[in-house]
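Input record (one chain):
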Amino acid sequence: MITSMPLRWRLLEAAAVLLLLAGAWLAAMEYLQHNGRQHDFIQKEFAPAVMVACGRGYINVDRFQVPELEGFLRKGINRTVERFDCSALPADLGAIQQPLNYYNHGTFQYLWRGVGWAWSVVGISWEALYSVQAGFHGLTVLLAYGLFRLGSGPLWSLAGGLFMAFSSQILWGVKSVRDYPKGVFFLALWLIMGWLVKRRHGAAALLILALLGGVLVDECLGVRKEILVAVPAFIGVLLLFGDSAAGWRLRALAVALFLGAMLASGWPLFELMSRGGTQGNVAVVGQTTNYNRILGLDNPLYEIAREPCDYNGISQIRHHAQRTRGEILKRPDQHGFEPEFYRASARFMEELMREFPADMWMRGLGAVDRLSDKGIVKQGGVLVLLAAIGVTAWISLRQGLFLGLFALLFYAYTFLQFHQRHYFHVLVIPLWVTLMLANALIRGALSWRGGRPAWLEVLLRPAVVNGAAGAPAAVWTRGWRAVLLCGAILGALAFGPLPFLTIWQAGNVGVLVAEVEKAPLEDLPFTETAELPGQVMLRLRDVPRGRQAPEGTDFLKINQLHPEWAMEPEPFDYLLLRFRAEQCPRTRIPVTMHHGDPGQKERNGDYVPWPFVVPLERGETRFYHPVFNVQRPMLGLAGISLPRDARSCLTQLARVTQAPPLVVLPTLMLPYNWMTLPRRLSFGLAETWGEWEG
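The corresponding structure, as predicted from the sequence alone:
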């Protein structure tokens, strides 16, 4: 039922919410003005927004042809060029107009248009966007308050709203025009879903809310397409979890209305996404060891990638297409990616998930564990979540299942790239469940002691209350049964598939190792230097290098300046380092792969070190390492270093001359007992990929 509240309390709550909204706006403005430079939110792609602000329509232009525009967009993140004057544009844009690329035609189209309209009112400058960004923060806090009120009274909800308004974890995202607006759409959808679950609705209200949900998804698609993860959740609420007396026909009609509203105006975006996308790049970057460590996961046998670098993912996709299908994909440039790359990216992601499904599942579980501890409760957040689900299931099994599945889905999807700019909006959920649990426990404790004062009841009563009816003994028995059943269902869904996925992946990893082991090898020549104290540096003399662009050349213009480079095969090497334990003074050998630009950075000794620890207890250990030698630091190999007294342990340095057509060629660590090592990610850090000390 909907609780009744005296008018004076409603007015007080409304006044408090308005003050909360104003405080959130001021907090965001203060944060933006005094917290350093803005995030990189691909300011260089804002040319269509500038055209809209200048009244030229939603078109794209070659920013390099207008020095003032190039300076404004390229240097926007450094704030060295703050404003742009429309008079700098030529009267006729025909000579510099170019097609809309992937970013401004699909992924961020609505965002670019919105920024353009805002600029047309407040002037074209990066600082002028502060008020817009602060407005999004205010809306985020306001929607969060509405979400909190579904399970908590005004007292706890206001406390949660204040935490949201001034929390550095949330304000961190305000600096990104590209990423922060998605939080408003996610929270609005979550609020609608919670309202559908908590309150019984008539046919008209159900259809209106379904229509509104579809419109919200469509609008967010032009800002961030990850909103698609909310689509199955919303459909599930309409069909299974909504507190509605509506029959299946009406529920099906609500689903159809939701999907129709989503597709009606967003069809061009869906059509663009149907060609593919950069999902494969996202998958590679998200599976780097750096992100795995944040999730508390590791594997001593293999590593998909080390650094979260977009160019690493691009190189992986290009080389996968080259090895498995004989396709040479065009390198991306300022116009974005070609359709062929989108399709290859989608294929790569599908194959990667099919070959390493247990890793994907474990990363989802790791995200649930990590995000649970990012609310008010910094340790034991999973226990708070489980307790909140249990208390909710005690009152209503349907609502308990919804809360558990809701948290699992929206926590787990962030595994794709577990970075703060991708999960900052999800931090509302651990705060929400903590407030809900605290509110329920206090209300229950006060009721146990013989009732609550009227004023305290108003402060603690949620907007919608569902109580368990019946005799106390029956409620007690039914409550425990609901909690146990809810836990069993959620536990089976969260952990049940893992053993089967592990068996499947173990077979795939075994095939991968077998294919790599039988690949033909060729010894590589190298020179030894003593440029690092106590270390031997091995300089390879015969490693293919990608063409190096002239110093100072914008990487996005390489295809324009050198069109013959665009379709060149991806320079690649798969190296083998073989170590033997006989006469080796060490059982664990620190080996550093020095990645970096072989030009200026190498001369300055400024390498990007990727440290590994090679286990060598007995027998031999084979260490395979992929190298993408492109025009980017962190990818090309500058040299290999190891301790001077471990030089005798290295017995072979070779390359794989014919790379097998596998989905990915990871870094492999194959000691004598590699077959006994786990073949999926596990909780806990493996020393193999860790930093070596001493």
